[in-house]
Amino acid sequence: MRRLLLPTAALLAQVACTAGLSAWAPPADTGASDDTASTTDTGSDTGPDSETGSTTGSAPTLDSFVVSEVAGDLVIAFGASDDDDDLDGGSLEVDVNGRTSTFAIPDALASWTGSAGTVRITTTTGGCGGATYTVTGSVVDEAGRHSATRSDSVTVGSGAPGTTAPEVGDTIDDLVQIGTITAPYTICGDAWGAGNDGLGYTADFDSIYLTVGQTAVWTFELTWEAAGSDYDFILSDETGAIVGYATTEGPAQPEIIEWFVFQGESYYVDLGAWSGSGGPWTIAIY
């Protein structure tokens, strides 16, 4: 085994003297690091921490909005523009005397050119006399951005034929017989009150008897004026068997029944005011 010989102190002194050097001693530790380079990035990053580019786009513009009457219906003609060109996939939102509807662009429109369109809304005025409709609308693009609103109004008084049902009683025996009718047709009436005991109607209950003058699918649409009220109606054939009913809970309207009717058949239409208050009601048949 080789042995490692360590130099003696005398030998170290002799080497140092021979080289003309004074005895060497390690430098004192001052605690300061000679490496002054900073490991911290002191450069100022002025770039944004997040994407600040705008993705809101621009809202569409409702350029024109005109309401007119055609055969008792409301026809809305409107023009719209959008810098983003994304009206397709959006909608036209309208409010007619407090009732709102949404029409998808272009699928739910009667016509659409890309910047102008029309919609047709069935009214329930008919033979009940003239009524003024105030219509407010706005367009919404595909991204959900709304235009400012525009409004127009029209008085409808030359719509479908109809009749006003007299207030003759509140049981099924107190029938209002209106004879043979063809659609479109409107039946108007007035509920003197509303109420229920959990099982049945305790206030106004009107019964109408009619005969069908054509074979077709008929839509019966019930609306009423008393805000916050709940009206219902039932359609029965001439044997008294119920063929349709609309008794949605709450004040949402219209209530709607659809049924395939045959010429010469007769039907009962029974209407009850379940809750809220009395007031005018309308059944539009079309």
Order of helices and strands: HEEEEEEEEEEEEEEEEEE
Average residue pLDDT: 79
CATH class of the largest domain: Mainly Beta
CATH topology of the largest domain, by name, is Jelly Rolls
Tell me the major beta sheet. 5 strands, mixed
Distance between the termini: 118 Å
Q: Could you give the count of β-strands?
A: 18
Level of helix content? under 10%
Q: Please state the CA-atom Rg, rounded to the nearest Å.
A: 42 Å
As a percent range, the share of strand residues is: 35-45%
- Quickly give the structural class: mainly beta
Strands across the major sheet, in which order? Answer: 9-11-18-13-16
Number of helices: 1
Shape: elongated
User: Uncertain spans, ≥5 residues at pLDDT below 50?
Assistant: 1-25, 32-55
Number of domains: 2
Q: In the CATH classification, which architecture of the largest domain applies? A: Sandwich
Protein architecture, described:
This protein has 286 residues and is mainly β. It has 2 domains: 61-156, Immunoglobulins (Immunoglobulin-like), CATH 2.60.40; 162-285, Sandwich (Jelly Rolls), CATH 2.60.120. It is 3% helix and 44% strand. It has 1 helix and 18 strands. The chain has one helix at 9-18, and strands spanning 61-70, 73-81, 91-96, 99-104, 111-112, 116-121, 131-140, 150-156, 162-164, 175-181, 185-191, 205-212, 216-224, 230-237, 242-246, 255-261, 266-275, 279-285. A 5-stranded mixed sheet has the order 9-11-18-13-16, with no helix packed on it. A hairpin with a 4-residue loop joins strand 14 (230-237) and strand 15. The protein is elongated and about 65 Å long. Mean pLDDT is 79; it is low at 1-25 and 32-55.
